Amino acid sequence: MSVPTSPNPFDSAVSRRAMMRGAVLLGAGAALGGVELLSATPALAVTTPTIASCATWGARAASSTLTQISTNPDKILIHHTATANSTDYTQAHAYSLAKTIQNYHMDSNGWSDTGQHFTVSRGGYIMEGRHYSLSHLTSGSGMVVGAHCPGQNDKAIGIENEGTYTSVTPTTALYSNLVQLCAYICSKYGIAPTKIYGHRDYYATECPGDAFYAMLPQLRTDVAAALGSTPAFTVTVDNTSSSFRASANWGTSTYSTQRYGTDYRYADPVAASDAAYYSATLPSAGNYKIETYYPANTGYNATTPYVVFSSSGNQTVTVNQQANGGKWNTVGTFAFAAGAQDVVAVSRWTSGTGYVIADAIRITQV
């Protein structure tokens, strides 16, 4: 089943994309949780991109007072507009796009202003989206609360990229200026390049499209290069990846739209060592944060064991797969040795009832 899309273009915040569119249980058990330990990239001198303000492209005034907060954003979320892949690369087209987005968000969605903070056209023009986004960015202090991703509007800078990138990639002009914009945002707010994510990482959506999403590791690397730094290692292992393995006892499903990627694996609980394994080649010994992505359902298991094969021994973390689905959830931060290895396994050995789910794992060096 494909992810359902809204009949409305320019992504509503409720349904954001249509047109704009055997592991033996060892170690101490723990509850799902953890603390974000990624250090921020220090503010460096980077090229200041040309960003057209709301006044420059002719934005309407916001229909009501916008919420501005003193806390800084901690991440960047990449979106695509899911509109046509226009070959009009002019500034006039870019400004017209910005107006169309704002009109839709205000007149159809009923929002007070444009939902995202910034927009990049296929011609590479960068525009302020929501009023006050640019002034906060320039000062490197605080932000205006957006409307681009539920749960992240007061934490993440949202960037819309013109076009639909399910099977094609962005233009060179768009991508190169997106790198510049992200580097500038990272430098002003002290955000690490590893904290650049896709919309789908935090919401059940296809955005920013499979082709663009696959480019995000390179985007992080290119932004880090622009900042003169080296990005921390991060890798996502999906159940379709070659570094995932599970026995034939694990079925494959597309039932839930909260899944990561095209499908996910499921199995009945059993008192046996028949786990689904996620492996990776880690570049160096050290601490790595483990996150899990799965669809949630009342028919799934509330005490799913995640066995983490850390360098200090196997550690088991219990995850409630009846809640917090369709987004990344932190399992914890653990020490690992360098090299190719099994990193984590989802075990079927649980006293809970309901299917045990194995979908995707993200591993990030901290």
UniProtKB/TrEMBL annotation:
It is an enzyme of class 3 (hydrolase). PROSITE patterns: TAT (PS51318). The keyword Metal-binding does not apply. Residues 49-203 form the Peptidoglycan recognition protein family domain. Keywords: Hydrolase. Its EC number is 3.5.1.28. It holds the Pfam family Golvesin_C. One of its GO terms (molecular function) is N-acetylmuramoyl-L-alanine amidase activity. It comes from the Bacteria. Residues 64-209 form the N-acetylmuramoyl-L-alanine amidase domain. Belongs to the N-acetylmuramoyl-L-alanine amidase 2 family. This is N-acetylmuramoyl-L-alanine amidase.
